[in-house]
Design brief:
By secondary structure, the protein is of the alpha+beta class. The protein has 2 domains: about 90 residues; about 240 residues, BirA Bifunctional Protein, domain 2 (2-Layer Sandwich). Helices cover about 40% and strands about 20% of the residues. The strands form 2 sheets. Strands 1-5-6-10-9-8-7 form a 7-stranded mixed β-sheet, sandwiched between helices. Strands 2-4-3 form a 3-stranded antiparallel β-sheet. A hairpin with a 4-residue loop joins strand 7 and strand 8. Helix 2 packs antiparallel against helix 4. The structure holds 3,4-dihydroxyphenylalanine. The site of 3,4-dihydroxyphenylalanine (DAH) has 11 residues, from strand 9 and strand 10.
Amino acid sequence: MTELQDLVDQAERAFADVDHAAALEDAKARFLGKSGAITALMKELAQLAPDQKRARGAAINLAKQAVEHALQARREALAEAELTSRLTAQAIDVTLDGRGQLGGGIHPVVRSWIRIEEIFRSIGFDVADGPEIEDDWTNFTALNSPQNHPARSMQDTFYVDVNDARGQPLLLRTHTSPMQVRHARAQVRAHAETSPGMSTLADIRVIAPGRTYRVDSDATHSPMFHQFEGLWIGRDVSMADLKGVYTGFLHAFFERDDIKLRFRPSYFPFTEPSAEVDMMFDSGPLRGRWLEISGAGQVHPAVVRNFGLDPEVFIGFAFGSGIERLTMLRYGIGDLRQFYAGDLRFLEQFNPA
Ligand code: DAH
């Protein structure tokens, strides 16, 4: 093996030994750099006689070309290896499942809310909506609970730092009952614009579902909760009609007929007489237990007057029921706080995928 071939072999081995581009450039310098082995041979040419110079020069050039060729080949191999390793590291596995999008769902309380609206619409009730920030007069006074009335203490609430036109602070409504006043007054006002008297006023039949607020928090009370108010005012609407309407509602809501109803005498400032409505299932896990579900009564004459109507002519009933309570009974939920804990394991049960 000639000395030049030996040098080419050394270079090839040196290039093969490095495993990244920067090291390859160092190896190159050892052969082709200013003080590299090949360059040194070139410099020695100067001392040779002209006839030797040509042959030796040609041989050195061949060796130099072989080294350059080996260098270039190694460069390309390293570049390719680096590209391959980058591609592997950054690979996207197109066969992996996607992360998916969680679909929204309907909250169980809203599910009930929707059902309640559907059921009452089907028997000719309107559905009304009103403000959650209410004024003191509409939430209390118009409903026959004047300032300092003891019944007010049962409905402590959250106040807003803004006074209404009467100088009373606005408040978060403690029940949906103020919607009786708002809706009835709106009907009466609209009728008055087109008719000379109330004798042609159609019956007022409405439910008003929505959020309500009280300073209350335990397993059966949340500071924010939902009620729906019912009101039917006409000329001969009685407590018997209330019983019929409410029984029909419960049968539709729970999708079963084995439900008994009882009215237990009670007190509300805005009704006289007043009742608590209890219901009982004839079968199932809650069988035989009276369950309190609603307040109700015949609308008090003072309240009918605040509607803008003559209580000697207009009479009817009202009720106010808790939507959480009905939802808990329908689905067998034990703790009301679960509705508002935001736990998907609970909520997903009402929205099967
Ligand atoms: N507003 C009452 C409450 O929140 C419930 C109620 C009772 C509403 C009797 C009524 C009613 O309309 O007639 O406790």
